[in-house]
Design brief:
Blueprint: E1 4-5, E2 23-27, E3 35-40, H1 47-51, H2 53-57, E4 62-67, H3 88-111, E5 119-124, H4 126-137, E6 144-148, E7 170-176, H5 184-196, E8 200-206, H6 215-230
Parallel strand pairs: 3-4, 3-5, 5-6, 6-7, 7-8
Antiparallel strand pairs: 1-2, 2-4
Length: 234
Amino acid sequence: MDATVHDAFDTSLETPPHAGGPVLHAGAPPEEAKIAMILLHGRGAGPEDVLSLADAYALEGVCYLAPAAGDLQIEKRSWYPHPFTMDFDKNEPFIESAFSVIESLLSHLAKRGLPPERCVLGGFSQGACLATHFAYRYPRRYGMIVGYSGGLIGNHKQVFQPHGDLEGTPVELSGGEKDVRVPWARVEQTARVLRAMHAQVEIESYPDLPHTICREQVQKTRERLQALLAGLRK
């Protein structure tokens, strides 16, 4: 799919440093889509990378949006500068900025007929951490949460107290057991916390997979997106 910058999704009034970055769009126009998927890229990558998943999903009726992280002058296109397993406050200003961009996109989509229950948050690595932690921070019914190699953000002593109601939101968490950047134990912990908040969590590990996304993961996400689309009336 061809990706273009979608000027209608202006985030310039949100919290810096990620405010005002380009938002790439692929797939159906939001006004014609049945669902939207906000795709969040990983550290050192960019929106064009994660937006390539739209081609792999190859589904009609989906509006894909991929915002770009700002330049933190530490490492370009990173949502936050430190590992996600460090103290939360080390990354907090950057995470809060990223959350403001996500919330802005959800607000724009809602005005175009796509409320949060028709929106999927997904990402890889840092993007997966943002997607899962955003759902944890702001519990409500989402279309789906997809986390490829990521989990809740905070150090190993952090207590993630379940709160609020995700109202049966489908959550897909997956990753590799050989992933040296994302401890599988954190993925499992994330699954427990989100289940306690009434999400329908599917967790899938891949024994030989390093820090990347494999075809089987993409295929499972595609099937779940198809199920989401089939359950809608629009």
